[in-house]
Amino acid sequence: MPLPPLPPSPRVLDPGCGPGRHTPILVRELRTPIIAVDLHAPFLAHLKRDAGAAGLAHLVITLATVASVTSATFSTCCARPTESRCRSAE
């Protein structure tokens, strides 16, 4: 499913990012920082390492919880319960 148009300088949330299989794709496709969230610290460490190796570390922000942010903070939220999909915040 293609993303709807995003505002200039969008903020994108990638909840349940796991080891970051899709996060670098989002960074490259959207050309914007991605806030990647996962409760499993080894997954976040893996994502940070891979993002650094790909030269994307400055565009991937990792968090272990979204408790300090609200959905209104983000332009879109990308999640993959069974398939890749993104939706705009309304």
Topology:
Blueprint (H helix, E strand, L loop, with lengths): L11 E4 L7 H8 L3 E4 L3 H13 L6 E4 L12 E4 L5 E4 L2
Parallel strand pairs: 1-2, 1-4, 2-3
Antiparallel strand pairs: 4-5
Polypeptide structure, described:
By secondary structure, the protein is α/β, with parallel strands linked by helices. It has a domain at about 15-80. About 25% of the residues lie in helices and about 20% in strands. It is built from 2 helices and 5 strands. It has helices spanning about 25-30, 40-55, and strands at about 10-15, 35, 60-65, 75-80, 85-90. Strands 3-2-1-4-5 form a 5-stranded mixed sheet, covered by helices on one side. It is globular and about 30 Å long. It starts with 11 loop residues before the first strand and ends with a strand. The model has no long low-confidence stretch (mean pLDDT about 80).
